[in-house]
Amino acid sequence: MDGSAPAPAALAWPDAIFAELQRWGVRQVAYVPDGGHARLIRAVHAEPTMRAIPLTTEEEGIAVLAGAALGGQRGVLLMQSSGVGNCVNMLSLVKSCGFPFLALVTMRGEWGEFNPWQVPMGSTTEAAFGLMGVGVRRADRAEEVAETVAAAARMVFEGGSAVAVLLGQRLIGAKVF
Amino acid sequence: MLAESGKLDRRELTRALLEDRGEMVVIAGLGAPAWDITAVGDHPLNLPLWGGMGAAAMIGLGLALAQPNRRVLVLTGDGEMLMGIGALATIAVKKPRNLSIVVQDNEHYGETGMQETATKHGVDLVAMAKGAGFPQTMFVTKPGEVPALKAAIHAGNGPFFAVAKIDATSKKLVLPPRDGAIIQARMREAILGPEAHHQL
């Protein structure tokens, strides 16, 4: 391995997520634009069996995935930790109706964050999901991303649970300008 | 179909829109539209929302994309539509031909004290939908326009967006099934068949 290049795993974790979404038959991918998910979002747009659905705000994603489930399609919501607070009331739809729900959340405000305004929501992301009964799993190293997404997807698509996977800022890399 | 005010009666309008509905799925926004679709006949293909204000149009989008050969109608109020107004942009980008949104506009928050909504003060939801890029829209105020509204819902040239100005009087409360798990499971079964309960 060339020591000056990023480790292959660091490049590959978004691809590993894409492969898991393919394996689980995910058809609707709702997202709010996000640097951490940019590579995955590009892959979804390029995949004809998947619908990429850009949102104006995160809570739209809760509702569109409920509609997908009603129509027999599996879906996932991609967002940043800063959007989790926006979802709190809308998650009552998931809780009251028992919809399956999978979110993949890139973390801000927790590891080398330059923007202090990201810290309040980043430090309460897990608690916000917990308030609404969404289970939280976490991956901080590239090699654990695929198995964590797979475990969450199984709980959601085979068990009907609501699960969010937090992708740590240490994994993604702090934003630099 | 007209109330004493000279505006459309919301329940008679709902009855007309859902008559001979065929396999059409109906998502009703929380509050009066949910009571309206129940009053004219509860149905497994009805999803009357008890909460999630602002969600109705987006639930319709997810369903319309998953079931492209089935008509999907979102029937909601002006306040509910305004709370999730960004959905107009999201839906216009995806262009689901089988999705229709009809806003029953009484210009008030009828469930919460009759405060005036923005539409009372000139905010034009049809213009907003056109601006977002909805190719088909209608503005309905008269009973004579309802057959064309109904035809547009069934035409499949959407996404289609309409505002129907309605009388603001509250109607008798007719409550749908309360358990969200039952409402969603019966709809999934109606769409997907009995195997709906064996898969997600």
From TrEMBL, chain A:
Keywords: Decarboxylase, Lyase, Pyruvate
Domain Thiamine pyrophosphate enzyme N-terminal TPP-binding: 15-108
InterPro entries membership: THDP-binding, Thiamin_PyroP_enz_TPP-bd_dom, TPP_dependent_decarboxylase
UniProt entry tagged with the keyword Cytoplasm: no
The keyword Nucleotidyltransferase appears for this protein: no
Domain of life: Bacteria
One GO molecular-function entry: thiamine pyrophosphate binding
Naturally occurring in which organism (per UniProt): Neoroseomonas marina
Record-linked Gene3D superfamilies: 3.40.50.970
Protein name per UniProt: Phosphonopyruvate decarboxylase
Automatic annotation (TrEMBL), chain B:
UniProt-recorded Gene Ontology molecular function terms: carboxy-lyase activity; thiamine pyrophosphate binding
Any one GO BP annotation for this protein: small molecule metabolic process
Keyword match Lyase: yes
Keywords: Decarboxylase, Lyase
SUPFAM superfamilies for the chain: Thiamin diphosphate-binding fold (THDP-binding)
Coiled coil feature spans: none
Residues of the Thiamine pyrophosphate enzyme TPP-binding domain: 48-161
Keyword Repeat: no
Protein name (Swiss-Prot/TrEMBL): Aldehyde dehydrogenase
Species name: Neoroseomonas marina
